[in-house]
Amino acid sequence: MKWLTMDMWSPYVTGSLIGVLSWITFLISNKALGVSTAYVRTCGLIEKKLDNNVEKKNEYYRKYSPSIDWEWMLVAGLILGAFLSSKLSGVFALDWVPGRWEASFGNTPLLRWAAAFIGAIIMQVGARWAGGCTSGHGISGTLQLAVSSWIAVICFFITGVLTAHIIYALF
Q1: Packing angle, helices 36-50 and 109-130, rounded to 10
Q2: What is the pTM of this model?
């Protein structure tokens, strides 16, 4: 059980385990592994509390009913797993402003949170536009050898590198 307390796991072992999880997901649910739909369903659940007829009014919610399903539980498991992993490895810390961000933009949590929030919105819009999130395309789509997913993953990497260079003025 020593592996539970390691700071980092081997990317080869972790990647292999994610691949096996993806196979099991296809076998059991006949669906790809991904998380972006869970976030949209969460918004739908919140809207449903405010207006019970939201599914009739919103075409997307007619196709993807706002409900708690296995994808939603996967997101909860990712958050809980990350927390438990950091606690067991002894690296858990409440770091409101990461060191790299602080060096470039100062120690202002509000600015960091605003940037993270705007980035999350952009990522979610992109995930809906691309028909899946980074895990959906990067894990499940490439596993199925879908050309569109390979193109999406290449674009994710190029855009991520360019964005980091622009934000942190690395050029």
Answers
A1: 100
A2: 0.74
